[in-house]
Amino acid sequence: MRDNIVKPMVMSYFVEKGNFTCAGEASSKIKNKLMKLGFPSSLIRRVAIATYEAEMNLVIHSWGGVIKAEIKPDVVCISITDTGPGIPNIDKAMQEGYSTAPESIREMGFGAGMGLPNMRNCADTFNIESQKGKGTTIKMIIR
Amino acid sequence: MDSYFHSVTLDEELCRGCTNCIKHCPTEAIRVRDGKAKIIDERCIDCGECIRICPYHAKLAITDPLEKIKGYEYPIALPAPSLYSQFGTKFTVNHIIAGLLELGFYKVWEVALGAELVTRAVNDFLSNKDFPRPVISSACPAVVKLIQVKFPELINNIVPIKSPMETAAKIAKEEMSKAGYPSEKVGVFFISPCAAKVTGVKNPVGMKNSAVDGVIGISEIYGLLLSKIKDIKKAPDLQKSSGAGVGWAISGGESRFISGLRYLAVDGVENVTKVLEEVVMGKLKEVDFIEALSCVGGCVGGPLTVENPFMAKARIDWLARNKVDKQQELAKHPDWQELMFTEKIKPIEVLKLDDNIAIAMQKMENLEVIEKFLPGLDCGSCGAPTCRALAEDIVRGQADEVDCIFKLREKVTEMAEGMLEISQKMPPSIRKKDK
Ligand SMILES: Nc1ncnc2c1ncn2[C@@H]1O[C@H](COP(=O)(O)OP(=O)(O)OP(=O)(O)O)[C@@H](O)[C@H]1O
Ligand code: SF4
Ligand SMILES: [Mg+2]
User: Fold this and answer.
1) What percent of chain B has pLDDT over 90?
2) What's the CATH number where A26 sits?
3) Which of A70, A136, B9, B190 would staple A77 via disulfide (CB 3.0–4.6 Å)?
4) Which residues in B lie closer than 8 A to residue A73 (C-beta atoms)?
5) Mean per-residue pLDDT, A25-44
6) Residues B156, B106: one domain?
7) In this predicted structure, which of A136-140, B184-188, B250-254, B409-413 has the lowest mean pLDDT?
């Protein structure tokens, strides 16, 4: 079977703002599916880390959003879209160690300012767009 | 796949084909077929959950009988630290060692002492090597197998150092050979709380061959050993291990002496699975070292133990506190390089739907369609642990939709309705005209 005639498999999850109880479930489901599909473990690990960081950012920083994974035999495309509040300065947000997380979040072990840099390191292609007031979209391609 | 040895098996006579075990298996390795449980060998990690859960005691671990030691002129016992927790506190470790000698062993080499050597080795290794964090202890063979089957992404995080059992076996044999005993006459036998260790000896991970010649379950010798121990009036000072090694029998015992690292100790296979899942997602960033034991409480909760695990844990706590210094023993033994794994740990790829990703994707799509039409009750009557597992078995060609009793009923109803319809049809010759 030729890879390019295979219909991509799409998984899509809504992630709620502030819901720490379910945080991580979407990433976990995506990871488990990739495993059943027989993807190499190095790819699975990168997808798992990247989607988990994105999912946590949705929970912590956004007003809620959607994680979508499009799976093809040779590549996984992940897009994360939220409805706001947007990131005022993307260059700053992408810096290692930059975080606006309040003390209460830091006490939970988040807010090291490593999420976005980690995503960029895990992805082969990383793209982030954001508009203050409109929301943020991240697209990652991992192969 | 070739038939693959592992320790946990089924006693067909005792099995009633209930669904207790299929529901508790962490790798979904059991199905009920033809009224009996069947273990999918390649998936089994020998955690022993099914042994603990089976109400009819139909699950057992293959171990070696005590008679096997008669095959060697100089049999050596390697008691697991957890053995020390199986008897009342009026019997000391010295009593237990003396009792083992009474059973016919020529010598006793304590795995607890092996554990102390491993602790030193792990500490040295971690301070000398840049290793992907968090590192995961390799001490529990069921956890190593769980990683091979379910978390292959984490294989590189496993500390590549031999277990206390292998360490003890190796050094016991070296000492005997140095003392002039012919190697073919020396046999070393692990006295085990653990089914996974049996598998680990027959199919070693991280090394070509195991140095252990046999594994005898604690439950196998318990009665006999107790009767010997009771008769010992005053036991000589035989214990060489310290509290640091004895502590390995319980969760947290290994981590206690890992220096300078932030550790996390987790026990019980379900909890271990959750923690490993979080490691894969990069969630546990604060942790450097993970001690993961498949049994609740640690090896004191092993499937081949006899004593209540919580009582056993309390006893180990006392023992580990009482005797924390005989460090001079350690000085006699080799440095850590010799305890390193010699072989790479390989993933066990049994969960994927197909070798070809494109085909696997099609199967996944079929699977999800099938799953939608199943009732979603996860009742287990079909012999699979969940509706989704049945759907998966169907796309693998190992089960049929009508294995689901609800689906079967639907089909029967459909057929019955069809029959009724047909039964009401009359041949035209006798059909009466509607008035
Ligand atoms: N979806 C988002 N919406 C709005 N702001 C965001 C979003 N994602 C990230 N940010 C901003 O970018 C900063 C950096 O994000 P990053 O994920 O790198 O670090 P963090 O979430 O603060 O800490 P860590 O990810 O290490 O727990 C955040 O502190 C936040 O101000
Ligand atoms: S916790 Fe101990 S007894 Fe249980 S499987 Fe692991 S090594 Fe064996
Ligand atoms: Mg973040």
Assistant:
1) 54
2) 3.30.565.10
3) A70
4) 357-358, 361
5) 92
6) yes
7) B409-413
Residue B2 has pLDDT above 60, yes or no: no
Q: Is residue B345 in a domain?
A: no
B278 touches chain A (CB under 8 A): yes
- Asked whether residue B348 is domain-assigned, the answer is no
Give me ligand 3 centre to Cα B159, in Å.
29
> Is position B29 within any domain?
yes
> Count of CB atoms within 10 A of residue B2's CB?
6
Which one of B289, B308, B339 terminates a domain?
Answer: B339
Dump pLDDT digits (tens) for B340-376: 888 899 999 888 999 999 999 999 999 999 988 888 8
CA torsion B257-B140-B237-B74 (nearest 10°) is -140
Three-state SS at B385: coil
In a domain, B434, yes or no: no
In angstroms, the separation between the Cα of residue B281 and the nearest Cα of chain A is: 4
Inspect the interface and report whether the beta carbons of A44 and B153 lie closer than 8 Å. yes
Whole domain around residue A59: which residue ranges?
Answer: 2-142
Query: Residue A82 belongs to what H/E stretch?
Result: strand A75-82
**Overall domain count for chain A:** 1
Express each pLDDT in B301-351 by its tens digit.
999 999 999 999 999 998 888 665 656 666 667 666 788 888 899 999 888
For a mutational test of ligand 2's pocket, the pick from B212, B294, B307, i.e. the residue with the most ligand atoms closer than 8 A to its C-beta, is: B294
Question: What is the rounded distance in angstroms from the CA atom of residue A82 to the CA atom of residue A26?
Answer: 15
Query: In Å, how far from its chain's centre is CA B332?
Result: 32
**B147-166 pLDDT per residue, tens:** 999 999 999 999 999 999 99
The C-alpha atoms of residue A41 and residue A74 are separated, in whole angstroms, by: 13
pLDDT of A4 > 80? The answer is: no
**pLDDT (0 to 100) of residue B323:** 62
**Which of B46, B61, B76 is at the close of a domain?**
B61
Total domains in chain B come to 3
- Cβ-in-10-Å burial (0-12, 13-18, 19+) of A108 comes to exposed
Q: What is the pLDDT of residue B417?
A: 85
Please report the pLDDT score of residue B1 as a whole number.
37
Residues B140 and B188 in one domain: yes
ipTM reported for the complex, 2 dp: 0.85
Same domain, B53 and B75: no
Domain boundaries, position B34: 8-61
User: Which residue lies with its CA nearest to atom 2 of ligand 2?
Assistant: B299
Report the gap between the CA of A21 and the closest CA in chain B (Å).
Answer: 14
Decide whether any atom of ligand 1 lies within 6 Å of the A135 Cβ.
no
> Which residue, B143, B120, B136, B137, is CA-closest to B197?
B143
Place of tokens 């997808």: A47
Checking if the pLDDT of B389 tops 60, the result is yes
